[in-house]
Amino acid sequence: MTHLNTAIDLSELQAAARILHHSLVNYPTADTLALFIENDLAQNWPAFTDSAANQQGKQYLTQFIAQWDTEQLTNLKLDYGQLFFGPGEPKAMPWGSVYLGEQGILNDESTITLMQFYKSIGVSFDLKYNQPVDHIALFYAVIDQLLAQIIDAQQTNAPEGSVAKEALIILLQQHMLPWSGRCLELAAEHAETDFYRGLVLLAKDFETVLASTLNVIPMPMRLFK
């Protein structure tokens, strides 16, 4: 049985996963940015272990919020596009198969394996846009769901928590962490706005803390990007 590092609040990890999902799954909107600003995302983001990445990420977001107005939304959308969507090849392609498959194509063997894993644990998606399931933002959504199950089970001593925890460990160890760090590294290198510079650093810190909390060591895999 894998034990949790209880020094980290699981509800904070769940909240961070949810924010990362909503921030990276699609182009930013004025409503989303208004919600982040209203809730002071930079100041209320969990400190976790108070790492340098965490501190710098929150500093970037603080700078972004301080000078934000809706006229900058176009530039923010352009930044999201060049990082994660296109036109052309995104600088930080958000799909796992691009990194794990020698051909560098979408829906490759690693995606099929992930789909089989999701089927085995009862995970499905109701997506607004057709999207390969190995998009990094969708991983954050599944992490959110599994952490919610673990938290609920801890409060009620239900056995489902052990199942959810083992599923989360496998998800991280075999399907996400072997490549997601490279995606975030490329995003940090090419981001042109403080919003995405900050968000990517916070995502890197989140993944490090989550892996440490669950005592997960990613499987070594060759990356092709």
What does this structure look like?
The protein has 225 residues and is mainly alpha-helical. The chain has a single domain, classed as TorD-like (Orthogonal Bundle), CATH 1.10.3480. Helix content is 65%, strand content 0%. It has ten helices and no strands. The protein has helices spanning 10-24, 30-38, 41-44, 52-66, 73-85, 96-100, 109-121, 136-156, 160-190, 194-213. α1 (10-24) packs antiparallel against α8 (136-156), α4 runs antiparallel to α10 and α9 packs antiparallel against α10 (194-213). The longest helix is centred in the last third of the chain and has 31 residues, at 160-190. The model has no long low-confidence stretch (mean pLDDT 94). InterPro entries: DMSO/NO3_reduct_chaperone (IPR020945), TorD-like_sf (IPR036411), TorD/DmsD_chaperones (IPR050289). It comes from Shewanella gaetbuli. This is Molecular chaperone TorD family protein. Keywords: Chaperone.
Total helical segments: 10
Integer average pLDDT: 94
The CATH architecture assignment turns out to be: Orthogonal Bundle
Radius of gyration: 17 Å
Strand content: under 5%
**What is the CATH domain class?**
Mainly Alpha
Could you give the order of the helices and strands?
HHHHHHHHHH
Q: Give the termini distance in whole angstroms.
A: 34 Å
What is the approximate shape?
Answer: globular
- Count of structural domains: 1
Total number of beta strands: 0
CATH superfamily: TorD-like
Helix/strand/pairing category: mainly alpha
The name of the CATH topology is TorD-like
Helical fraction equals 55-70%
